[in-house]
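INTERNAL AUDIT FORM
Audit reference: QA-55
Scope: verify that the stored structure record matches its stored sequence.
Auditor: D.O.
Record contents follow.
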Amino acid sequence: MTAAAQAHVFDIDTANFETEVLRASMTTPVLVDFWATWCGPCKTLGPMLEKLAAEYNGAFRLGKVDVDKNQELAGMFGIRSIPTVMLVKDGQLLDGFAGALPEGELREFLSRHVQPLEGEDQVEPEPAEAEDPAQTINRLQQDIAANPERSDLKLDLALALMRNGQADTAEAELNALPANLATDARAVRLRSQLDLARALEGAPAMPELRQRVQADPADWSARDLLGVRLLLEDDPAAGLDQFLAILEKARDWNDGAAKKRLLAAFATLDDAELVGHYRRRMASLLF
């Protein structure tokens, strides 16, 4: 641990919990990290939390709970797996997460609740390295091996596999989820994505589809497949634009496929603003 982090990191036990966590959180939020020496993901998460504690320069304090030594505290928070992190503010549990999140997601979590304090000793944040899909899959597989009871991690893995283009494996993971997660909003969206992905079986690659559409803007089949590829390959707005182009010029093509594609696409997207915008555009063309 760096000297900058030491000023903002402390150990929690039953003796100091009320004073250093509950009472102290009335003035400064306390991020509570539940960990253990034998926990592999904890060894990844812990140093990142300490680094962020130094960067935030006292905007929050990082309290660490060794669950093996403090089973009473772990029980009080209902800890079922580690690492688990809880944010306490104004004497109340405000938010939390389980698992070793990548640094970018840690920063996003903290930014929702606290802002770094300026000071002479403040450490300039280092840009968080984006995790590529293969790294995400590897991390989640390790987390699942360490916490096999964590079904939510298995859903995360299914989503990561889909982002990596492994639709069949993603579907197998999705089908193996327990009933309580099968209706999770993310699982429902993934099921819709898999339905769309089936349209791409045997379909040309993106460059060929772009060339076909450029050569013949009325090649509705190519435009439709291009829209699906764009939608599933992280350019949803461009994909929706393809479907709208078909809806505008050839509403009845392939038994009204463009409208069906748009409705299916809306079910896959977790962006209310984007969906609302394109729903209005679709409605303006239909009515």
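Auditor finding: record pair retrieved intact. The chain has a mean pLDDT of 87.
Action required: none
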